[in-house]
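Our working data are protein records whose layout never changes between entries. Getting from the letters to the tokens is the skill we practise here. To make this concrete, we reproduce a full record directly below:
***
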Amino acid sequence: MIGRIFRRTSREDEVFAEAQALIDDGLELAFVLDLYPEDAAWLTALLDTGIVIGESFAAEEPSYYFEASLKTRFVEAGMERAARAAAPVHEPVAVVPSAPAAGGFFRLQGAVAGTAVAVVLGGMSLLTLGVVTAGDSVPGDWNYAFKLAGERIEYSLSTGDARTDVQIRHTMERVQEFQRLNQKGKVSEKNVEDVRKGLDSLSELVEEEELDPLQRETAKAIAESASQVLTTTRETQPELAPRIDDTIAVAAGIGSAATGIAAPTATATPTAATTPPNTATPGTTPKPTGTAEPSETPEPATTPDPASTPEVSETAETGETGEDPGASPSAQATGSAADEELP
């Protein structure tokens, strides 16, 4: 087993590797075959196969799975060809009778151990290949199970807002997978049901959780995209119309719910704008207090000279003049002087 693993390459393998390298460098097939005239018979078919494979790679980029399977088949073909090669001629060896060997059990044990190691390495290689290539897989691909397993692990390890983002992203993945299947014409009832389950979980998330504006817009965009692709599928596959109509209704509910949550934030601002005018209006009313300026009228406090007051009292007591008692003292004095001048 160990000798088979570390076996040296044969001359044919080295010649083929050199010739293929020259072809990869851009040399013509005829020129390369002229360099190996003795091996041209069997080398032509291998080089032609390599050229065809190279042209196929240039026409369409192969997937990871195709590359891995091609390498495996190529290695197996090389090993099978080497096994069919003629065994080297050995000189006859004299057989000496001896006791029967007792190492049969150990050889069997080594073979079992080697097989177990090969199986483990093969499983690890397949697992690695499945995880690496699962990102763009869709339902029906061989590595789609790896994608679902990775999503479950991601959801289990997330918490809080991160879990909300993970759930939204997984729903987006279901819609994008359905869109790719629709482009290939491979949509089935189960695919519609998968989209329906993703939209149901997203609807519960929108109704029960407080999402930020970015998360609400993302959920609304997912619902709109799902409605568009489902409408297209209903036209091309009428037999799925009942399932598709139910799923479109769920998507429409998500869009309305995401829009309804964002509405209160816009109506909260006008209430604060009406309060400042109420506090400013009382400030203008104190202006009428300026009318108290007539307090300067105390000028009548300059009473007349005390010498003239007896005359006013005498005239008031006699009542002969008939003048208004409320007249000023100066006017009363002038009236008394005029009476004295009369004959």
Notes: Residues 104-133 form the longest helix (30 residues).
